[in-house]
Amino acid sequence: VDRIRSSIRPVTGACGCVHVADVLFTFSDGSFKRPDIAVLCELPNPLETDEALNIIPGAVIEIISKKIIN
Questions:
Q1: Torsion angle in degrees (nearest 10) through CA of 20, 37, 1, 24
Q2: Distance from C-alpha of 43 to C-alpha of 18, rounded to nearest angstrom
Q3: pTM of the predicted model over 0.90
Q4: Hey, how many other C-beta atoms are within 10 angstroms of the C-beta on 38?
Q5: pLDDT at 51
Q6: What ranges make up the beta strands (E) of the chain?
Q7: What's the pLDDT score for residue 10?
Q8: Which residue ranges in the chain fall short of pLDDT 50?
Q9: pLDDT at 32
């Protein structure tokens, strides 16, 4: 996950491209999701909280395999 996060770069003219790992999000239907990596336009305030974030990530990345293919 850290290797993937270190490769995430913002696109010129796009939002801030903040990426967070293993953060709980709540959605309007009441469901909760904890993606491996979430890409946000700005850093939520406060990030360190015991509650789920009530924002929609711009993108999510789920790691489905740790097997490295050469």
A1: 80
A2: 6
A3: no
A4: 23
A5: 83
A6: 18-21, 25-26, 32-33, 37-40, 59-61
A7: 73
A8: none
A9: 94
Q: Letter for the amino acid at 15?
A: C
Three-state DSSP class for residue 19: strand
Angle at the Cα of 53 from the Cα atoms of 51 and 59, rounded to 5 degrees? 145
Closest CA relative to residue 14, chosen from 45, 40, 53: 40
Cβ atoms 16, 43 nearer than 8 A? yes
Tell me the C-alpha distance between 23 and 36, whole Å: 8
- Exposure of 36 by Cβ count < 10 A (0-12 exposed, 13-18 middle, 19+ buried)? middle
Structure tokens at 14: 């796009």
CB 53 within 8 A of CB 23: yes
The Cα–Cα gap between 61 and 70 comes to: 21
Dist. CA 51–CA 27, nearest whole Å: 13
